[in-house]
Amino acid sequence: MPEGHVTHRNVRLQTAALGLGQAISATSPQGRFRDGAALLDGRSLESLDAHGKHLFYRWEGDLRLHVHLGLIGKFQIHLGPAPTPTPATRLVLESNSASVFLAGPMVCDVITPDEEQAIRRDLGPDPISMPRRGHQFVERLARKRVPIGAALLDQSVIAGVGNVYRAELLFLAGMHPAMPANDVTADEAMTLWKLAVTELRRGVELGDILTVKPHDIGVRSRVGLTREEGVYAYQREDLPCHRCGAPIRLNSDGARKIWHCPSCQPG
Ligand SMILES: [Zn+2]
């Protein structure tokens, strides 16, 4: 599932590509968003913003477009002339300079400003756009009676963390995923928050999740690392830990898999 770094990177790339303050054409080749696209078509795009995994486009006339990519949603940005969209393309936004194609989103709806506020109210702080809201994360985490591994996926605790980042943040913090969230001290929680700010912000810059510290794997930079080299825990079961060499373990936490190093993250 695309995590918060993907939505924020799309805000940056789509704002630059489409340009703000000019009329945008909106169509739905797939047809499922025909009515929504007709509402937006020809209006000027005023701004784009992300909160965790949610994207909000603000249009002339106080309309909002709400997009959540879900598990399989994808954007494509085309600068200059665009290819013909596939029939599965839910939405095409087109300006004079670029086109944005959206396929497979979990949510693609036209909503009101009040509805946007209601969605945001239910979300926890976003480490990418609200780095100073760590105190909110600490407070919300302390109220959760679930393992820390589950709490980090709860979007009302911290917005934008998914399965890759939660495994990596827990590794970096040296915390076992099964530790009860309400046993995490305020200092430990703030450490997790600061790690989230650093790691997710780097994800926006790189367009990928590369959490490994280069010296841990004997290289000088993260450039060119594969996913397996570039993370400590996620999907590395049975492979040696980049730090200590112990085999990484796979556990499941309800429906989602989680990986950890038994030596760097003792129970
Ligand atoms: Zn280890």
CATH class of the largest domain: Mainly Alpha
* Number of separate helices: 8
Radius of gyration: 20 Å
Number of strands: 10
Report helical residue fraction.
Answer: 25-40%
Give helix and strand order, one letter per element, not per position: HEHEEEEEEEHHHHHHEE
Low-pLDDT segments, ≥5 res? none
Characterize the largest beta sheet: strand count, sense, and whether it forms a barrel: 4 strands, antiparallel
Shape: globular
Structure keywords:
single chain; 267 residues; alpha+beta; N-terminal domain of MutM-like DNA repair proteins; Helicase, Ruva Protein, domain 3; 2 domains; four-stranded antiparallel beta sheet; 8 helices; binds zinc ion
Short description:
It contains 8 helices and 10 strands. The chain is an alpha+beta fold.
Question: Can you walk me through this structure?
Answer:
The chain is α+β, with helices and mostly antiparallel strands. The protein has two domains: 4-121, MutM-like, N-terminal (N-terminal domain of MutM-like DNA repair proteins); 134-260, Helicase, Ruva Protein, domain 3, CATH 1.10.8.50. Helix content is 30%, strand content 21%. It contains eight helices and ten strands. A four-stranded antiparallel β-sheet has the order 1-6-7-5. Strands 2-3-4-8 form a four-stranded antiparallel β-sheet, with helices on both faces. A two-stranded antiparallel sheet has the order 9-10. Strand 6 (89-94) and strand 7 form a beta hairpin. The radius of gyration is 20 Å and the shape is globular. The mean pLDDT is 96.
